[in-house]
Design a protein that fits this description.
The protein has twelve helices and twelve strands. It is α/β, with parallel strands linked by helices and 290 residues long. The protein has two domains: 71 residues, 2-Layer Sandwich (Alpha-Beta Plaits); 219 residues, HAD superfamily/HAD-like (Rossmann fold, 3-Layer(aba) Sandwich), CATH 3.40.50. The chain has a six-stranded parallel β-sheet with strand order 7-6-5-10-11-12, with helices on both faces. A four-stranded antiparallel β-sheet has the order 2-3-1-4. Strands 8-9 form a two-stranded antiparallel ribbon. Helix 11 links the parallel strand 11 and strand 12. The longest helix is centred in the C-terminal third of the chain and has 14 residues.
Length: 290
């Protein structure tokens, strides 16, 4: 039987007892709090269209509602995007800022993430504009301009503590993915390789590139290697190049995603942080490893 999951943003929670009770009254089912004021389950809702009813009751409040199955709810593999998912920025846009061309590059990034441009071509175009950027500047950007997305470390550390394997697969760059993957605690990190001439960017990226196919294939390969049914995987991302892995994962989560991505994903988190992925799996706040 399904569970209706209600999750608020822990930084500004709007899921109070009255709202939860109002949803239960309309959908039926049994209320169980995972974290009072932040996340709850409504088990076995009886109303047809319970998800839409819940979203109608929630209205404009910053609370996410999703319907998830109870069987296989705890996942054994996590595959996550990096830029605007595990970190709060798009790294390539921040690199462009150092050259005074952030707006130009960010526009291309945004169109690529909405699926309006071919990802590989957009990547080559943007990286070419970075030619001449010095390694020391990139290191400073990595150190000063990039921030971890809230809840990411708790997500990864908790899933690992309960036996899951965690993979960071990014259409961004190893210069950032290796560094932040280790800080967050991922078991592995896969990303594109920026090419240097000495300590200066050449404006090219090594081929083949990491793209939407890489993300999907890595998720399926990890499942096969570890003897895990794909239904026991969870994937999270925000852009068009994440959709293929989101579609094949047991839980495919669009996190603060572009509208086209959110519309196609089985699960959407518009308000919560990355701990929402733990609540979706039925973890209590007391279970979190922080």
């Amino acid at each position: 039987m399904p569970v209706l999951s209600l999750i608020a943003n822990p930084a500004d929670p709007e899921l109070d007892a009255a709202l939860a009770a109002a949803v239960v009254q309309q959908t039926g089912g049994e209320l169980n709090w995972l974290n009072h004021g932040v996340a709850c389950d409504i088990s076995e809702p009886t109303a047809p269209q319970a998800l839409q009813i819940a979203r109608d009751v929630i209205g404009t409040k910053s609370v996410d509602a999703n319907l998830v199955p109870t069987e296989g709810r705890r996942k054994l593999i996590l595959v996550a995007d990096m830029d605007s998912t595990m970190i709060e920025q798009e790294c390539i846009d921040e690199l462009a800022a150092a050259l005074g061309i952030k707006d130009k590059v960010a526009e291309i990034t945004d169109r690529a993430m909405r699926g309006e441009l071919d990802f590989g071509e957009a990547l080559d175009t943007r990286v070419a504009l970075l030619k001449g950027l010095e390694r020391s500047v990139i290191e400073e950007i990595r150190r000063e301009a990039i921030t971890l997305a809230p809840g990411g470390r708790a997500l990864v550390q908790t899933m690992k503590a309960y036996g899951a394997y965690t993979s960071l697969v990014s259409g961004g760059f190893t210069f950032f993915a290796d560094y932040f993957g280790k800080r967050i605690g991922f078991d592995e990190a896969i990303a594109n390789v920026l090419e240097f001439d000495g300590d200066v960017l050449t404006g090219t990226v090594a081929k083949p590139i990491v793209d939407k196919n890489t993300k999907r294939e890595r998720l399926l390969a990890l499942a096969a290697e570890r003897g895990v049914d794909p239904s026991l995987t969870i994937a999270v991302g925000d852009g068009a190049n994440d959709l293929d892995m989101i579609r094949v994962a047991g839980f495919g989560v669009a996190l603060h995603a572009k509208p086209t991505v959110a519309a196609e994903a089985g699960i959407r988190i518009d308000h919560g942080d990355l701990t929402a992925l733990l609540y979706l799996q039925g973890f209590y706040d007391d279970d979190f490893v922080r």
